[in-house]
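User: quick one, sequence for these tokens?
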């Protein structure tokens, strides 16, 4: 599904965070957002998910305006938000238990536990898992939602380099098979290049699109040093010097 963000304005206090932010994500497209810490990346996802409301502007899915929690989005926030009183299996199957067929949801989850490095932890409590395992569980819960658009806020930030690579590979393959529209917030330039069709670089506050990069198939390889050279340098140069600015 196509996502459109048009002239969004939003502020927490006096200083505006956005004064007319616009961008779109085509149906099935994978777009990453990079930008300085504190510029408002998580806030964009909170606005789309309906947790926050813009002062003005419009957000649309396939041309239809969205207000509040629309059900179009599977959202993985920056903190894992696992329910401590539910087991890992109960946590990851939450969406299926509420909206669909609980048995089917559990079967799908069981098949994915090993891939997510969680085999054997189905009945563990979130408090018994490491930070990286909790993050993988939160990502699995998001992946199991059937919503059309994935909103991912630094989903692999707490993972070790090997797990992160596995998760990125899995997300890349899922992108191809399911054709879901995806908006990813990350600080990892290599991750953005590997996964994205397009990368948006945000300025500091008030945040606007500083630059936009299209990623070619040739850039999207694990052979970072060779294939990504020019694009990677350009992204580094673009981000360096951008600051969030005063709040
Ligand atoms: N609930 C809140 N109340 C007041 N200010 C907030 C609130 N949440 C975020 N902010 C402020 O809004 C700004 C943008 O926050 P946001 O979390 O969107 O940034 P971000 O780009 O995701 O940063 P990071 O890369 O560090 O995750 C920050 O200055 C932050 O302090
Ligand atoms: Mg954030």
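Assistant:
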């Amino acid at each position: 599904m196509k996502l459109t963000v048009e002239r969004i304005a939003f502020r927490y206090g006096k200083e505006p965070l956005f004064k007319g932010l616009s961008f779109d994500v085509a149906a099935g497209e994978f777009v990453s957002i990079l930008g300085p810490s504190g510029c408002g990346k998580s806030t964009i996802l909170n606005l789309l998910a309906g947790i926050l409301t813009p002062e003005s502007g419009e957000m649309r899915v396939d041309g239809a305006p969205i207000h509040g929690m629309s059900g179009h989005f599977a959202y993985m926030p920056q903190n894992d938000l696992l329910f401590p009183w539910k087991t890992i299996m109960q946590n990851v199957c939450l969406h299926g238990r509420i909206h669909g067929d609980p048995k089917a949801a559990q079967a799908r989850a069981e098949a994915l536990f090993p891939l997510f490095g969680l085999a054997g932890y189905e009945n563990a409590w979130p408090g018994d898992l490491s930070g990286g395992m909790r993050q993988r569980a939160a990502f699995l819960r998001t992946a199991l939602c059937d919503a059309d658009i994935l909103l991912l806020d630094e989903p692999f930030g707490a993972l070790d380099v090997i797990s992160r690579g596995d998760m990125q590979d899995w997300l890349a393959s899922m992108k191809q098979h399911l054709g879901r529209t995806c908006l990813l917030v990350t600080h990892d330039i290599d991750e953005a290049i590997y996964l994205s069709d397009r990368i948006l670089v945000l300025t500091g506050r008030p945040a606007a699109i500083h630059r936009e990069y299209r990623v070619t198939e040739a850039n999207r390889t694990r052979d970072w040093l060779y294939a990504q050279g020019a694009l990677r340098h350009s992204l580094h140069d673009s981000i360096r010097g951008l600051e969030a600015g005063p709040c």
